[in-house]
Model the fold of this input.
Amino acid sequence: MENVSLPLLYAENSAPISTDHRFSQNLFSQPDSYISIVSNSHLLREALTLMLQHRSMDGVKSSAVDVDLVSTVTTSSNHLVLLDSGMGHSAVIAQIQEWRSRQPSPYIVVIELQNDPDLILDCIEAGTHGYTLQSASSAEVIQVIEQVYRGVAHCSPEITAKLFDRLTQSKAIQQLKEKPALTHRELEVLHYVAKDRSDRDIATELVIEVRTVKHHVHNILRKLNVKYRRDAAQLAFNNGWLNLTS
Amino acid sequence: MDSYRSRYGTTSVIHVLIANLTGMVAEMVQQTLQQQPDVKLLGDIKEWEEIDAAIAETDVLVLGVDDVYSPPEDCFRFLSSYPNLKILLLTTTGNEAIAYWRALHCHQTQVTSSQSLIESIRHIYSLSP
Done:
């Protein structure tokens, strides 16, 4: 992957392409406003750079970098990073968390996301301020940037519903922190569930029937008020109920 | 434009059809193609079924894909039905592009800007069918 230079692209005296988009110039024109584009795709970087140049952002500076140079992105106040999700799920999440841990922390907008609710929710949980899907037009991307600078966020109804679900799950998990209320056998099963072992493996280890394992797993999920085995495992990890070294 | 025509030996307008490109990249590619005097943009198609209606008069089909090394089955159908057609598969998540023509011929290239995309289109158009 080639390295690219970090040119400063000043968008001066440029006029909006589209007059129907109600673009608030002053939101982008705060002192020291700076937008970084982090993407592997040259075409996407060019498209974003052109978009920023053409959207009347007097005084706003921007630069585009390859994801290999992501560490060169330094943050400052009023700094916004457009992060291409093409760098991979875990890398995107890790990068968002790293930037959010900095002081000052930049605004982060993840772009080119696939319409995968779990991925979007993971980005939100990691701390992204906004997101756009692969099919987003430049006007839509500008709108998201504008909203982020204004301190508001927009999610599709589908994502909002899933966010409610996650919050409910999170609350239930919080309430269960003190008292797992699992039997000794259920804790044993949970121990193997947390190790990502199949029901058949667990049955072999504990010398019980597979259907008995399924029964225990069902009870564990019900008692912990979670939908998935991985949520039960996460809950156990978080609360130190298990010793996985044994 | 004359320099391009002399370089690539083209004397006519290149009819380009865009398909399956979305978002800002599609906007930029469209805009860039429309600015080229030797290119006529036939359309920007989002639904695969609509390609059939426009493919007959297409010289170069620019097709957005996830993986340039796995062309959709229909590409080969188009290439066998239209011997003069060139297909440029383009991934917008990376920078790879592969041009296909006459079923088995292919040419790999890097698309690092909208200008290099135009260059690639002119180049593959100039290749013998």
Notes: The two ends of chain B are 23 Å apart (CA to CA). Chain B touches chain A through 16 residues (CB under 8 Å). Residues 2-20+32-126 of chain B form a domain with the Rossmann fold fold (CATH 3.40.50.2300). The CA atoms of residues 61 and 87 of chain B lie 5 Å apart.
